[in-house]
Each structure stands twice: as C-alpha cells, then as structure tokens.
Specification:
- The complex is a heterodimer of chains A (167) and B (266).
- In chain A, 72% of the residues lie in helices and 0% in strands.
- Chain A is an all-alpha fold.
- The longest helix of chain A is centred in the N-terminal third of the chain and has 23 residues.
- Helix content of chain B is 31%, strand content 22%.
- With 266 residues, chain B is of the alpha+beta class.
- In chain B, a hairpin with a 7-residue loop joins strand 4 and strand 5.
- Chain B has a seven-stranded antiparallel β-sheet with strand order 1-2-3-7-6-5-4, sandwiched between helices.
- Classes of the chains: A mainly alpha (167), B alpha+beta (266).
C-alpha cells in the first residue's frame, strides 16, 4: 500500500520548486507544467521505492528533464500527452519582467542551461551537478562559465559574470 | 568556478521566474496520483494482454483448436471488457529510426563517430554466442554500424514486431543466449555484469549487460549489450572496444538509450 499522505506532503513541499526549475530549463510555462505533472505521476507509480531515495526530488527533476529532452527530439510526444491528458488548464505567457530572461534562456545550449539551473536554482554544488548530469566536474564548470557569459551578453548585464565571493 | 551562493546575481535573476510559476495553476496531488494510477493501469493492461496472448498460444498448441480443456478447470473467456480496446496500436518505426552519430558523443577517448547504415556491416557478431538481432524474426529490421578511427564499434538494430509479446520474447532470446555463453578457456579472465535495469523514461523496459574478457597477459576486450523495448518495438545496441572506455560506467546509459528510442519510433 503506497503512502498517499507522504506523497501529498512531498508534492506540496516540492512541486513549485521543480516546476520553477523546469520553467527555466524549458523556457516554456506550459511545458514546465506538463513535464512536472508527468514526472510526479511517475513518482507516484513507484512511490514505495522513490520515497526511500535520499533525494526523491532529484529523481523527479531528472525524470522531468529526460521527458523534456525526449520531447524535444520528438515533438509528437507532447501532442500525445496533450491528447491523453488534455491541455494544461492555463498556460500564461511570461510576465513582462521576465520576457527578456526567458528569451535569453532559450538562446543558450541545453547543456549550459541545465547546468545553470541545477547550480543556481536547485542549489547543487558543481560536484552534485556533475553527478546528476553524468559529466565530469570540469565540463560542468565550463558549461556554467559559458552559460553565464552567454546570458550576460544576451541580457546586457555584465554583473552576471562576476565571480561569487564563495569560490 | 564559485560554489553555490544563494545571493549570486544570476541566482537572483533566475529566481524572478518564480513569479510566473506562482501564477500558474498546478494540479493538486490527488489529480497527479490519479494520472499515475492511469499510467499503471494502462501498463498493466498491456502486460495482461501479453500474458493472455502467451497463454492462448500455449493453449492453442496444447489443446488444438478447441483451446483449453474444460476438464482442466479453466473456463473459457466470456464477456467482460476486452483489453484490446484499451491497448495502444502497434508502434511504427520512424522514417530515420537510427541514432545520429552525434547522439553517441564522446565515449571515453572515442569520438568523431561516423555511421554506416549497411545492415550487413551491423550484423557482425562481437560475441560468437550472441545471435545477430536480424535473426530475431522481426517484421521490420533497421540496422546501422557506428565507427571511428580507433578500435571501438557500435551497432544498432531497431526491430518492429507485430505485438509487444513478440518483442518481449525476442529480448528474452538475447539474454538467454548470453546466459548460456561459453566463457572460453579456463585461463581466460572473464568478468560479466548484468543484466541490470536501465532507467529510460520512454521505455517499457530497458536492460543492459557487459562482458570483459582477456586471455592471459593480454588486453581485455569489452562488450556491452543494451536492449530497450517500447510496446512492439525492440532496440538492440551493442558495443565493442579494447577495454571499457575510460571514465565510462556503461556506454549505453539512460541518455543514449533515451535518444535511440526517441529516434526509433514514429
């Protein structure tokens, strides 16, 4: 018997965070909604196992990301999910203040975007990002550096490339 | 590169996206659980159909046209919902169902992949005991070889069967063949791994195994097999190189298997 109360508490505590991260990764609110829901639905299917993981949220995030990557390779998947589950109830455009940021995120390569989101939004260390994406730490550092530089240029904000005092 | 700092300017910039997310309604947890339960039911129905078909096939063989003898105490199926109405149609292969060389990326020192889409080249057996996937009696087989200037080779077979249970049975043949593989002379050093499950979001199942084998005082040959199935489509990926690529646990990891499955199916 799966622990629905435990799942509900986990969902309530984490789903906004995951959707926020998926929004930054996909630059699309509707996609972020759909991917987040699907990832949590899959977590519920295996909840008796997933809840024993050290970090179930990381599992959900990884599943959501893989679904996103899969969807990009084959746009039809999104149509299939929409047909099966219906369109999201409401898919707003970015707020006025975020239009430029969303547009800039769309411009940088997926790998850089994912590294930036995991490091700067999910709060993972470089080593943790490396573990989650399956890449060497040096590669992650390079992706972060290039991604920051690209975003700074796109947003015309040089302060984004400033080195943090917590080096 | 600095470690994470919650007051970092980029972190604060990205945090602004939170305002968009917070005005976006998200399903409550009960709805999400229901969605998960629907997925489970669909998968269970697909599995049940496979079992029913298998039992029916065995019954047909054992009992002739009359099916299972009532004396066995198994009543004939009557009425009830027909599972087939809930099962998705058999999947078809994409027009270009094979991996792009760029999907392989860097595998240890191996990079700069080129594709040879000739089925004959892909049907070479790297382990003598393993049947070539083109002998698995699929309705449609697409195959390709990936190579580079070094000693590694990768092959891909995308097989379309008439139904899921045929694909399951074909995968079983591959794993059974490996399990029965001769390990060579006793002096050879042989290390097998797997079969082990691979998490692939879009697959119904995915497993992989490997064998490293070396005669005495010799470099070892590394072989890896991954088999992923979605419905009636089976994906078979093989790899061979001298030694396991540096820094690589499994060549056919979740990312590459996901990419291959996404490309394979229409």
């Amino acid at each position: 018997m799966k622990d629905s109360a435990g799942f509900d508490a986990f969902y309530a505590a984490t789903h906004r965070r995951v959707q926020h991260q998926m929004y930054a990764m996909t630059s699309n609110l509707a996609d972020a909604q759909e991917l987040t829901q699907e990832a949590y639905a899959r977590a519920w299917q295996r909840w008796s196992t997933v809840e024993t993981y050290d970090d179930p949220e990381a599992w959900v995030r990884t599943v959501a990301w893989r679904l996103a990557a899969s969807r990009w390779r084959k746009a039809k998947n999104g149509v299939t999910a929409m047909l099966r589950h219906g369109p999201p109830e409401h898919t707003p455009e970015p707020g006025v203040d975020n239009v430029a940021l969303v547009a800039a995120l769309r411009e940088i390569p997926e790998a850089q975007r994912r590294a930036i989101v995991l490091h700067h939004l999910a709060g993972l260390s470089v080593a943790e990002v490396a573990h989650e994406v399956g890449a060497p730490e040096g590669t992650v550092k390079a992706r972060l550096s290039r991604g920051r530089a690209a975003l700074a240029e796109l947003l015309a904000d040089n302060s984004l490339t400033e080195v943090s005092p917590h080096a | 590169m600095p470690e994470y700092d919650s007051n970092d300017k980029l972190t604060l910039t990205l945090d602004a996206l939170r305002s968009d997310v917070e005005r976006t309604p998200l399903a409550d947890s009960m709805t999400v659980r229901r969605r998960g339960d629907q997925r489970t039911r669909r998968q269970a129905v697909g599995g049940a159909v496979a079992v029913v078909a298998l039992v029916a096939g065995v019954a047909g063989v054992l009992g002739g046209a009359g099916g299972i003898n009532k004396a066995d105490g198994v009543p004939p199926a009557t009425g009830g919902p027909t599972a087939s109405t809930e099962v998705e149609q058999p999947l078809t292969l994409a027009s270009h169902p094979l991996l792009d060389p760029s999907d392989l990326g860097r595998v240890g020192v191996y990079t700069d992949w080129q594709a040879n889409p000739s089925p004959e080249e892909a049907n070479i057996s790297y382990l003598r005991c393993m049947p070539s996937p083109d002998t698995l009696a699929a309705e449609q087989t697409e195959a390709g070889l990936f190579y580079n200037d070094l000693d590694s080779r990768a092959t891909e077979h995308v097989l379309r069967f008439p139904d899921a249970e045929s694909a399951v049975a074909a995968a079983g043949r591959l794993f059974s063949a490996f399990a029965a593989c001769d390990k060579g002379p006793a002096s050879d050093h042989v290390v097998d791994r797997g079969p082990t499950d691979v998490p692939v979001a879009s697959a119904d199942s995915a497993q992989e195994l490997s064998r490293a084998s070396a005669p005495p005082d010799s470099d070892y040959a590394y072989y890896e097999l991954a088999v992923a199935r979605k419905g009636n489509v089976l994906l078979v990926l093989q790899w061979t190189s001298m030694g396991r690529p540096d820094g690589v646990d499994w060549v056919w990891d979740s990312e590459r298997l996901s990419a291959a499955l996404d490309r394979a199916i229409d």
